[in-house]
């Protein structure tokens, strides 16, 4: 390996007549690019593909992901969105985001472009897993789909308590027609049985 100098299984640069070889873990440290798409090519630093987009960051430009400064030009460690040309980020930051987002959700942090953005990231060696985003695992946001289910009236009159609700009648629970974040039993807010909608005080 030209990086660490040790023997063992190595990858050779895919460019003809280039005999540089390196271990996969050493590749990133040396600025090598490994493309995680067919045909899974690897390139030494001299032959690594670079972003074709012409762009230079403004002074004091920060990474859109970690908000730390980026270099003053495109480099192996500093990348830019090929579409908007104003979203700059560190290679490590976009790699971390790619591992979380997966191919279905990875996009430019600024303009939200995903097609040309994905193609460019694949070309410069960003590994994007072919799976759903990690935040979909273990029903992380399942509570967002839950319906509000208790009476928020200042004084709840229901004999069964705030959590009790019936399908119809005085103890039917109506949710605010604007925000759906508050609810009331009909009787607790003095609503008739014929009333089909209710709006909370906040709305």
Characterise this structure.
This protein has 203 residues and is α+β, with helices and mostly antiparallel strands. The protein folds into three domains: 1-49, no CATH class; 53-146, Herpes Virus-1, CATH 3.30.40; 147-202, Herpes Virus-1 (2-Layer Sandwich), CATH 3.30.40.10. Helices cover 15% and strands 10% of the residues. The strands form four sheets. The protein has a two-stranded antiparallel sheet. A two-stranded antiparallel sheet has the order 3-4. It is elongated and about 85 Å long. The termini are far apart. The mean pLDDT is 91. Residues 63-112 form the RING-type domain. One of its GO terms (molecular function) is zinc ion binding. Keywords: Metal-binding, Zinc, Zinc-finger. InterPro entries: EPHD (IPR034732), PHD-type_Zinc_Finger (IPR051188), PHD_PHF7/G2E3-like (IPR059102), Zinc_finger_PHD-type_CS (IPR019786), Znf_FYVE_PHD (IPR011011), Znf_PHD (IPR001965), Znf_RING (IPR001841), Znf_RING/FYVE/PHD (IPR013083).
